[in-house]
Write a structure and sequence with these properties.
The chain is of the alpha+beta class and 72 residues long. It is 19% helix and 11% strand.
Length: 72
């Protein structure tokens, strides 16, 4: 055991959530309150609403490792 919470390894936690999926945000809020970490909510958008020509080129983007928790 490291002696620290795993959440202390992250500077910030962002939750991206669609406005109409309040059930998922409620589940995440409950889990966060039980484990004791804080987060910032960012409102998500449906991919079908984004026009392809507005998407950035991914040619020069560095590779990033990310983690996703999915409830339900």
């Amino acid at each position: 055991m490291l002696g620290i919470h795993p959440w202390e390894c992250f500077e910030r936690v962002f939750v991206i959530n669609l406005r109409e999926r309040y059930d998922k945000l409620d589940a995440f809020t409950l889990a966060a309150s039980l484990t004791g970490f804080s987060y910032d909510v960012i409102e998500g958008v449906k991919g079908t609403t984004i026009v392809n020509k507005t998407l950035p080129s991914l040619d020069n983007i560095p590779k990033v490792v990310a983690c996703c928790l999915h409830f339900g």
